[in-house]
Amino acid sequence: MDAETIALVQASFEKVAPIADVAADLFYTRLFELDPSLRSMFPADLTEQKKKLMQMLTVAVRGLSRLDDIVPAVQALGRRHAGYHVKPEHYATVAAALLWTLEQGLGPAFTPELKAAWVEVYTVLSTTMIAAQRDAQTTTWVAMAKAPAQPRALAAAGD
């Protein structure tokens, strides 16, 4: 990711930040239109989730020029997504919803060059999240495999 890509994404996000509430509404509406099955992964009231989305995007976008500094937070987010039953293919749906949201919010300023910059940034971040999520799932499976099996009588007694 070069300096020009980072600058394009950061400058465009500064235009979206003032309409964060609208952008979050657009994003989740589009996400659930694209894949209605994702709705069950979220709380009924999306107010806090929308805030978290915009906060995460703000931290990620502002930190792009210091990518090494934000990678641990992005990895932690990926590990948390393992517990939410997020699948790697969901990241493509999120990308589509995000790009659509940016296009709606930025209008004609969302040029093909800007879209390509956002795709590059999202790809780097989502790839990092997916890798961390896979690592977390693998660690969980390894731990479960190493755990001593409980005899059925003991397992039933614990219920």
- In CATH terms, what is the fold-level topology? Globin-like
Q: Look at the structure and name the CATH superfamily.
A: Globins
* Helix/sheet category: mainly alpha
Strand content: under 5%
Give the averaged pLDDT, no decimals.
88
Structure description:
The protein has one domain (3-157): Globin-like. The longest helix is centred in the C-terminal third of the chain and has 35 residues, at 112-146. Residues 140-145 have low confidence and may be disordered. The chain contains 7 helices and no strands. It has 159 residues and is an all-alpha fold. Helix 2 packs across helix 5. The protein has helices at 3-16, 20-34, 47-62, 67-83, 90-106, 112-146, 152-157.
Which helices and strands occur, and which strands form pairs?
Layout lengths: L2 H14 L3 H15 L12 H16 L4 H17 L6 H17 L5 H35 L5 H6 L2
Helix pairs in contact: 1-6, 2-3, 2-5, 4-6, 5-6
In short:
This protein is an all-alpha fold. It is 75% helix and 0% strand. Helix 2 (20-34) crosses helix 3 and helix 5 (90-106) packs antiparallel against helix 6 (112-146).
Using brief descriptors, characterize the structure shown.
single chain, 159 residues, mainly alpha, Globin-like, 7 helices, globular
